[in-house]
């Protein structure tokens, strides 16, 4: 990065007060600036398509667009993008999902402002960062779930089928929802059961939830 050129950041959080707080912290840093700050996932998706930012600070729980979908979108456009997730969630599904989706840093919203500053500085140096609380939770869970990792990560389409199965939808309903044939649904189902090393569809869903691939509402 050229001297005296500030790193530009996109901040996404659906809570206005949280967004304002992040912007205040970031704009006090001499070498970075908030280029855009939005509360809408849809608007964030538009901005991500329009330009490339030096750092992305995202909340995961955004009502209109999943934060995980935004991460996927960013990675498809730039696999070297520096992504920081700022979340309030400490649940097992969230910890494992974040550990698997390849973000550069994770901090909890309950963390001190210094944690956000440290995360930004770390990712700009090309180094990963997790706040102490999240790192502790992740470490405790990793040993217990080490043997449960799927052989291969589910593809996006397989993930769609996985979510539908978890909601209790049958093959016909999934085929209609995803606009694919019932045979294709069954093929995806069999692949998923194999990838998760599951005995059946129910066992597959249990393991997928435990690993953070899906969340049961």
Structure description:
The protein has 217 residues and is α/β, with parallel strands linked by helices. The protein folds into two domains: 7-143, Rossmann fold (3-Layer(aba) Sandwich), CATH 3.40.50.2300; 150-211, Arc Repressor Mutant, subunit A, CATH 1.10.10.10. The protein has ten helices and six strands; from the N terminus they run E-H-E-H-E-H-E-H-E-H-E-H-H-H-H-H. The protein has helices at residues 16-27, 41-50, 67-77, 92-100, 113-124, 132-145, 156-166, 171-178, 182-195, 201-211, and strands at 7-12, 32-38, 55-58, 83-87, 105-108, 129-130. A six-stranded parallel β-sheet has the order 2-1-3-4-5-6, sandwiched between helices. Helix 4 (92-100) packs across helix 6. The chain is elongated. The protein starts with 6 loop residues before the first strand and ends in a 6-residue tail after the last helix. The model has no long low-confidence stretch (mean pLDDT 87). This is DNA-binding response regulator. InterPro entries: CheY-like_superfamily (IPR011006), NreC/VraR/RcsB-like_REC (IPR058245), Sig_transdc_resp-reg_C-effctor (IPR016032), Sig_transdc_resp-reg_receiver (IPR001789), Tscrpt_reg_LuxR_C (IPR000792), WalR-like (IPR039420), WH-like_DNA-bd_sf (IPR036388). The modification 4-aspartylphosphate is found at residue 59. Keywords: DNA-binding, Phosphoprotein, Transcription, Transcription regulation.
